[in-house]
Amino acid sequence: MTRFDADTPAGRRKLFADAVTAHRERGSAFLTVEVEPPREEIQFGESDGETDFEEPADDEAHTEDGETPDDESAPPWIQFAEKTFNLDCTDEELARLHDLLDDYPEFRIEERETPEEAEGTNVRISARSDANRLAGFLDRAFAAVYDRPDDYRAWVVQV
User: Fold this and answer.
1) Which residue range forms the structural domain that includes residue 116?
2) Does pTM surpass 0.90?
């Protein structure tokens, strides 16, 4: 793989299909896709229109109202390993995931885990399909489940 991000539906689906193919060819443990927060959610270090993902200094790690950002504001991610998607969902996102899975009858929720200390559910979905179908699901999951806009930017952060 030579590129690791995309921000159009066609570009993301090609990126995701390439990532699935690279993951399979390399026999890697898993691949991880994350999305960039929408512009209004970015809290640290923008310059020249590019997002700076460096860790903020301790005195900068606060929102405008003085609170410290927490995991709730972390952008969504989806992992894929062998033939399984792994993702975390709130109750609302889980309901949207069930709706999305109606369009993917060959994909099945195999495991759901809701730890007491967590505010969401970890979901594992068996997904036996070709790279293009998996890529389509990834793109639609970020848009539908996590309510990302049509021009959201996705990053393949681990293959």
Assistant:
1) 5-36+77-158
2) no
Residue 84 and residue 44 in one domain: no
| Tokens (6 digits) for 97 | 């995931």
What is the rounded CA–CA span in Å between residue 79 and residue 66?
A: 33
Q: φ and ψ at 83, to 5 degrees?
A: -130, 35
Q: What are residue 94's DSSP bridge partners?
A: none
**Residue type at 95 in one-letter notation:** A
- Name the burial class of residue 59, with classes exposed (0-12), middle (13-18) and buried (19+) by CB atoms within 10 angstroms of its CB: exposed
- Please report, in tens digits, the pLDDT of each residue of the chain (159 residues total): 567 999 999 999 999 999 999 999 999 999 999 998 766 544 444 434 443 323 333 443 333 433 434 445 688 999 999 899 999 999 999 999 999 999 999 999 999 999 888 889 999 999 999 999 999 999 999 999 999 999 999 999 988
Same domain, yes or no: 14 and 67: no
